[in-house]
Amino acid sequence: MFGWFRKRRRQRIARRRFPDHWEAILHSNALFFHSLSSAQQERLRRSTQIFVAEKNWEGCGGLQMTDEHRLTIAAQMSRLTLGFADEYFDDVKSILVYPDAYLGKSQDQIGSGVVVEGSSSRLGEAWYRGPVILSWADVLATGRQENFGRNVVIHEFAHQLDMRNSPFADGVPVIESRQQAEHWLSTMARDYERLSALCDAGVPNVLDCYGATNPAEFFAVASEVFFEQPNLLNAEWPDLFVLLRDFYLPPNH
Asked: What residue ranges do the domains of the chain occupy?
């Protein structure tokens, strides 16, 4: 019954007129929007409206939340879910936003259902069942294509997809079939080892060496590059590109 009411509420939200000033924010702070098809653009608008309406948006460190903050972040969340049906990260109730990188207690490994980016200075965090914490400066730089392949929103919400089947991120999200899961595990394990070897040897490549930290970070970093620099990922890591393409943008969707 609750699911029925939620679906009806979302349908009402999605039917609302998309405000003109929101459209202007999309065009300035979500430059990827221009590369989408008309159908994808309309779907992104609808999903963005739902994310803005449903999430509890909290400014931290003196940040006063505005429509610009909410819409810019929600657009990236919608971008991640364009290939999924009715994906609104229901477990994540709150999104906390700092004006810039923020300080926190250092953690060196994943545990207790938390994934932490960086050490003392952080750009984001993804907790099991929320919240997600983000640096606004990094989000904005990404939206304006100034971050050279990085995307903290994609990164943290990839962790949320990862934690769908466990409180612990391990680089393996929910996968439809056993055969697909076996292919995922073999491809990810091989390419994770390859990245680790390249980073140990100091060989530059399109994947940031933070992805060599562990399989969960490899999945999150690869997801960033899949959306931000797909052509380079396809050229340097073709099997990984196809794996992520089939996951994020399945055929006939």
From this structure: 2-148, 178-248
Of 251, 195, 141, residue with least CA distance to 242 = 251
Cα gap 101→135, rounded to integer Å: 5
Q: Above 60 in pLDDT, residue 220?
A: yes
Average pLDDT over every residue of 248-252: 83
* Total-model pTM: 0.90
Closest C-alpha to 169, from 226, 231, 107, 229 = 107
- Out of 1.10.150.120, 3.30.300.20, 1.10.472.150, 3.40.50.300, the CATH code matching 2-148 is 1.10.472.150
Residues sharing a CB contact under 8 Å with residue 209, sequence separation 6 or more, in sequence order: 195, 199
Per DSSP, the three-state class of 63 is: coil
Other C-beta atoms lying within 10 Å of the C-beta of residue 39: 9
The model's pLDDT over 111-122, given as tens digits with 9 standing for 90+, comes to 556 666 555 577
